[in-house]
Here is the input.
Amino acid sequence: MAQLLITGGAGFIGSHTCLVLLEAGHQLLVLDDFSNSSAVALERVAELAGTRLQRAQPTLEAAPDALTLVEGDIRDAQCLEALFASAKAFGLPIQAVIHFAGLKAVGESVQQPLRYWDVNLVGSQRLLRAMDQHNCRTMVFSSSATLYGYPSPEQVPIPETAPIKPINPYGASKHAVEALLADLARCSGAAEAIQASGGGWRIARLRYFNPVGAHPSGRIGEDPNGIPNNLFPFITQVAIGRRPELTVFGDDWPTPDGTGVRDYIHVMDLAEGHREALHSLLRADPQMLTLNLGSGQGASVLDVVKAMEAASQRAIPYRIAPRRPGDAAISVANPSLAAQQLQWQTQRSLTDICRDGWAWQQANPNGYGDGCR
Ligand SMILES: NC(=O)c1ccc[n+]([C@@H]2O[C@H](COP(=O)([O-])OP(=O)(O)OC[C@H]3O[C@@H](n4cnc5c(N)ncnc54)[C@H](O)[C@@H]3O)[C@@H](O)[C@H]2O)c1
Here is the structure.
């Protein structure tokens, strides 16, 4: 059992990962500002894990439970200091951080670059500083396949060694955090640096491809604010009748059916990938892992439409529109390094993704509901 801090743990990937980590016997402190999530997600995680959700201030008035939720911002250095110091005072020092908190909408990042750099980079830097000050030097970081920019066809499936060419502020901010983590890993490689800082860093930079689907119970899933930016929640909202039709951007890409091809990974597979990365770091010497988390399988927009029609038994109306600037034709992972390093690979198919995503959407047509953030 380890005491873990999960930033952004109320969000889509964070909530599913919290469940998997609770089931693995870990004790979790979640820090989230609810800017894109609801505490209801964590109440449901607690229910699925057979525990209760404890709410606390950053000063933790009582010893943390299996699942403790603190409302706060990763950029708030005082909040971070209070959290690390109080956990230590209760004899449960934070041993590792899984860092999901951040802003993730590519289009919004182009409109609001200062906000994206502030939350994603400044927030991460403050968190790393607090960790360093409290001798907590194990982090699993949410990076993104967005770093690969427009992969050229000969680079697909994309290995971790492919050129890093972020093409928007979101990708650039993830790249900057990856660079900061690499600097920390490098400095802890030097004997004097280890002595000076009391120990080396254990870091996993996980580059996710397209996380989709939901827990098979239908109790937790993706609940985007406003109009979804991504294909999958959009399609499920069309299937349930919340939106009239899907817009398919381009049917003239150099792909088998002309629509864009992506690597969709079931969020439960992704959550299990985090568990394996964490366990690998906790058992090993200081090191840095950089791993693609994807299925290695490509599915086109029309493949997803067909799979969702089969899962929902409903027709999904769509309209073809011109290509969107900034999109790539194909983005598919080469996940063999994660298989080798973590003995992890995806277990769930596109059919499973659509079945579980549809179950979530049907049971929760308005997500976690209005007014409960
Ligand atoms: N979903 C994807 O397609 C995808 C792909 C690649 C990488 N990622 C990365 O994975 C991470 C999690 O993504 P997600 O899909 O679960 O997103 P999400 O928006 O559902 O979760 C992010 C969580 O962080 C919280 N948060 C945001 N800013 C915060 C702050 N300043 N302080 C505290 N909490 C804050 C939000 O309220 C939310 O609960 C993000 O860092 C994202 O960039 C996501």
